[in-house]
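Troubleshooting log. The previous structure file for this entry was overwritten by mistake, so regenerating from the original sequence record. Sequence copied from the archived sheet and checked twice against the printout by T.R.
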Amino acid sequence: MAAIEKSIDVGVPVSVAYDQWTQFEEFPKFMTGVLEVKQLDDSHMRWSAEVAGERKEWEAEIVEQEPDRVVAWRSVGGLTNNGRVEFEPIDTGTRVSVEMEYDPDGMKESIGALVGLDGHQVEGDLERFRDLVEAREMPTGGWRGTIESGEVVEEDRVG
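Regenerated output below.
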């Protein structure tokens, strides 16, 4: 498994950064290569992305979600990946930290992981997220429910 850890400081309150991040269908606006994210229910999504020049699809399950603190996921079919995004209040806004693990599929992806290209992509995605969330007065919505061990234990929508 290849691993990536990156973080960025964004100039908005934690609740704004968190609410925008939970708008998974908006990910193609700032994530390079992501073609579509379809929210299937509160804890499941179907992803479609271009990876190393090939279209890949997979489903992911949110295994942990706590408003203004964390969103963690794992793939449940297709491309193998998992990770978490943490939101931490800082003096100037919010620190958004991403940890991901994935299984490189094929020579191109393995080489990309070895030379750190994937880490650069995540850095760029976080910079575009910062630009998106700082340019808006309000997030495009939000889901402030809680998920533990893949099960929704509290449901709350905003926007």
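Residues 11 and 134 are 6 Å apart (CA to CA). Archived copy saved in two places this time.
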